Amino acid sequence: MCSGGESDRQPGRFSAGRLPDRQGWLVDRWLHGSDESTVDAVLANGMTSLMGLWTEVRAHLEWIRDYNGSAARPVSFYGIDLSGSNSSLLPSLDAVAAFLAEADPERELDPLIRETAARFAAASPFSIASVATSYGNLAPERQDALTAALARLTHRLTGHRLEYVRRTSAEAYEHALRAIHLAAVLDVNAQAMLGQDLQAVLANRDAAIADNVEWILRRQDRILLAAHNGHVQRWPTVAAPGRPPASSMGMHLADRLGKDYVVIGMTTGGGLTFNLGPGFFKGELLAEQGPPEPDSLDALMDASCDRPFAVDLRQLSPEDTAAVGAIRRHRHGIYYPEVDPLDAFDLIVHFPETTAAHLDHGAVASSPPEVRRPSNRACESGRAEPDGSCGNEE
Known about the structure:
Elements (H helix, E strand, L loop, with lengths): L13 E7 H11 L7 H7 L9 H14 L7 E6 L1 H4 L3 H14 L7 H8 L12 H6 L3 H20 L1 H7 L2 H25 L3 H20 L6 E3 L2 H4 L16 H9 L6 E5 L3 E3 L11 E3 L8 H8 L4 E4 L5 H8 L15 H4 L2 E5 L6 E2 L1 H5 L3 H13 L3 E2 L8
Parallel strand pairs: 1-2, 1-3, 4-8, 9-10
Antiparallel strand pairs: 5-6, 7-8
Helix pairs in contact: 1-2, 5-10, 6-8, 8-10, 9-10, 10-11, 11-13
């Protein structure tokens, strides 16, 4: 199964990443040269879930922006995930408020909606664990009032579509409509988190991501979609060991797109990965994942080659098809959920070892204090390689 080779570095026309839909617009504007924000601000505010804190991401965005400067067909960039690290309605609500200020200035967004949402909004993944508690501290009447207000706002946007499009633009209207839909999903997920229904949280999230991807495909003919194996696979995904599975984004897209949806999964032999344990909240951003467990897809791929390679599962020999088909586990960080690789993926890219990315000083310095503090501790501890200096803890 071991194969590979060199290829020219050419960008696809459109790129979609597992970033919040609302924040992704900032990245896209910057890549097209239509936003005057610094790259530090774009990394810190255009990418949540800490995805913008790394020098490798800076280099990737700067490369695309340089390419777009002279390209006949520039690369566009979209976010596909829920806003605010999957835990805050505020970015989506602010987008809707900005739209209504232009489309319907005499009927402003009720400030109580944002005030209520701010009571349980997490500023970053470091405070996401507090969302359920903060939401639970709201009076049930306040929770219900928020849900009802979001429903009324959704119907207001759909009912006044013709007037709003005439006063703004079809694209601005569609952005606002997507934003309010995502805010409603986040509201429902806060309720599910309070009830510890992680299956519902995951099902709602992946269905919303699939809707975002479909929305993008109505505007573009082809995209490169980057997300976790658990999202892209054509197989049920799980939030944690022992939890019931939920339909993944990949299952939704396969149902809607058929063979036009091609899935590239990833396996690893060892090295560093994102820390899913309690040490994360202390600034231990990365953790050793160790060698793959026997009888897993990662172990099979790691045993077949000692260098990075890609393999097309659709073109395997009968012997290799039988070997892959016998596998029923695939590493997701620290656990191994069930999967049928031949159903879940079309291709696999394998890395014998994953190494630490480099924390980006400028991005960290432009981030909120609750991100700067643990990031600086990670920088100083050497668990994530710094780019030459650590930011000032505040």
